[in-house]
Amino acid sequence: xxxxDDVRIPGMHFAGILRSPYPHARITSVDLSVARNAExxxxxxxxxxxxxxxxxxxxxISPEAFGGKTTDVRCLALGKVVYVGEPVAAVxxxxxxxxxxxxxxxxxxxxxxxxxxxxxxxxKEDAARLYEQWDDNVxxxxxxxxxxPEAAFAAADYVIEDELRIQRYSTQPMEPRGYVAVWDEHTxxxxxxxxxxxxxxxxxxxxxxxRVRESEVRVIAPTVGGAFGLKMHGHPEExxxxxxxxxxxxxxxxxxxxxxxxxxxxxxQMHRFTVGxxxxxxxxxxxxxxxxxxxxxxxxxxxxxxFLTAMSLPTGYKISNTDVLASVVTTNKSPWNAARGFGKEAxxxxxxxxxxxxxLRLDMDPIEVRRRNLIQSHEFPYKTxxxxxxxxxxxxxxxDKAIELIGLDQVRAEQMRLLAxxxxxxxxxxxxxxxxxxxxxxxxxxxxDTSTVKMSPSGEVTVLTGVTTPGGGNDTSILQIVVDELGxxxxxxxxxxxxxxxxxYGFGNYSGRSMVTGGNAAYLAARDIRVKxxxxxxxxxxxxxxxxxxxxxxARSIDDPSRSVALADVAYTVxxxxxxxxxxVEPPLESTRTYQPGNIQQLPDADGKINIYPTYSNAVHxxxxxxxxxxxxxxLQRYGVVHDCGTVINPxxxxxxxEGAIAMGIGAGLMEQSIHDPQTGALATDGFKSYLMPRAxxxxxxxxxHQITPSPYTALGLKGAGExxxxxxxxxxxxAVHNALAPLGVTIRKMxxxxxxVLHAIKYxx
Amino acid sequence: MILDRFExxxxxxxxxxxxxxxxxxxxxxxxxxxxxxxxxxxxxxxPKIVVDLQCAGLSGISENDDTITVGPKTTYSQLIxxxxxxxxxxxxxxxxxxxxxxxxxxxxxxxACYANPASDxxxxxxxxxxxxxxxxxxxxxxxxxxxxxxxxxxTALEPGEVLEAILIPGTAAKARFSYQKFRTxxxxxxxxxxxxxxxxxxxxxxxxxxxxxxxxxTIELEGxxxxxxxxxxxxxxxxxxxxxxxxxxxxxxxxxGVMAQRAVRAVRHDTDGGEx
Lengths: 766, 276
Fold this sequence. Notes:
heterodimer, A: 28 strands, B: 5-stranded antiparallel sheet, 5-stranded antiparallel sheet, 15 strands
């Protein structure tokens, strides 16, 4: 396995990047003269010089296309900086050490400007303005309304108003970002090695930013050590490293430092919601006007997460009157990128807190409130208020399984027993809906993908696919599908991903799409080859083609299993006796197929709504916690989940994804937060001793159950897997903590549930 | 990545250490290196000379004349396994965050000299009434651990001076004790530590709080305070609170009271973490 930092090119040099120390400042001068003459330095570049040779980086999802505002994002700041950490100038040197040393010799003069870090502050009229050409700091406001919420609130027996602040946090793959760019002057061609989730769309972005033809860029994604959305593109360093290679004439490598990975933000949202419901627990109306603090507007797809938070409400609940408004706001924090869950985790967290609040007000079992409001299994496909068309599921059965998994009666009895001793045990449930395999119209966030399957004359199978793997195992799972279909051994099959020259055009990995699109496409392509193999094998075995089965590397007569032929011999026959035994079977044994799942609706319906997701995986989470009310510390004792992603290809990978996402959600729920110093605007949590992530000893064993309700809209019944877990875990934890603290009447409105936040809520009831 | 070239010295005894650090240039002394090396990698510390104690024979624990001598280069792992380790230090060392790598590299003396308020060692050695043996070209001086910790990240060490040994009275080392540590999660530095030892008459007369203030705080007790009085008294004694992104001053102050209470209770009732 070759990771990007293992890539070594003869003559390779190293980039050093000078970053802004200020959250908002005008750049008045950049002096590179000392740096240029420093030891080992080959080249140095300012933002103004970069702008002469490059164009703005195209937005992964342009807010303008959805009626919002946009701004040019460049590989080096031009004119002014809008966040601490923004790249300002760069050097190329013969070693990383010399590059970093030379960066310190770059002299930049700044004129500091007022800055704003809080989104609600940024929405005020007199707030510091990031982009002078805008008339405020709001990127876009996106409403989703249905029914008549005002009338429904008026008619409701009960109305609750409350708020929930979700912290800024991040994804931190074990491998940070890294890029190696090689410009070849003779062929006028870039080769770009990058820890990238989306090599083909990145090629388009690089060609636009670098003023070359798309065919003049080859993107190769080597093995990637975790991505979680952070390695979707639009980062300034991608085109910067290319430009540095071209202008310096050297191959250039840049490997990110952890403090730089931590700059990339996500998820910060302030929700203010109102819910109307009746005394029987039926929720009739939901209003949620929330503000997302996306930091400075970057070119990666981060801001789109707020869009999908809004679209995904009210998740799997039948609430027919909704008034949801997302306000996407820029501030002088570093930009967002995508983060596993892609905004949908926030919808789940908010909805699940609302359900428990309704239950508390009615003194009803929160499970019962869920049962009364969740879509029932006979109601699918179900069109939600946000326009989503949910494919299938059995949410009530999943709830029952979760109750059984945790042994609800026993844990509730234990809770009562401990409460009598002054100990606070809590049980929290959360339903989670994860729309997966999305397609955003007008962007290179595509809902389809393509795979090629080839069998050589020796019977060896090669799969090429446009989906890539961040390390989650979709390569193996796609091979499993192909191997099953063709009846060959796993050892006779290989898969290649992530090279724009080798692979069919594809969108890479995001949105739990790899199996739904690339997997189903590989299935279709393998089926084409299977038909040929069966036909030729039947001729070789002198039987009907309906009498052939494939398996274990052989084609066999079903009627008389003693009669068989090796698939290698069948393949050899296809290639060598194309005008005899294999007549009429079109060689070669190759097929390229694209899979477009059903249930994507790009054109707006009568209500102006689109459906960007074909599949909807779902889960029920349950957490058991004990809260130390003297310190606010939470002891997570048990964690269970019932997960439904339709047909499961490889349970081990699905469980691995589920456990990983839950660990991430537990981190988000209990500890992870990116904190900016209000005085300097700099990120204070710039390492793993200040940005705390869960360690093995913070996590209980995760008890997993599968439930399978195949999607009617995908060939194999697959739904996306991989994203579900974040919001469910946050919500189950929060509900468990609230359940534990119910005797004290505590509401915690600030995530994460750190001892400080929990204790504050216990002591001050705010 | 460490940017600057520096001179690396690995002296083989304490006299050579003293010679090596007696210079006008900026010196960094590495005991385990778990602080200095990452700081150099992040460019926040840029010494001209790095003096590594690993060959200077300053590790290990010995006992004589009712005094336990702990070498500053003694790692947490050594504290856990050595025969003469005071039990409180053994308990403290077993709870060091960062896993086996840190326990194998990090040292008691390094942590004391770094004097990070959010760490275990300062509070623990103050609780043990340790004395610090400091060496320089001017000779040796011995000061109480309470005097050694001056402020956050600041000790009584003067330029050209090095910690040569930590002396712990045998009576303290053998006392019944409780060590209560609060951290938010496994990866967190200690937020508050409370170390409580019974005195010669097996009474609880003091508890030492680490993490809540810029330096360890010793709270003297009459011995008959209620739980609430212990907490209140503890909180009232934190005059220079410590605060960082993991926990603010209010939280640390509050939790100091809780941890003091728990430590005192454990020693009094010989339960819940009370050890000998």
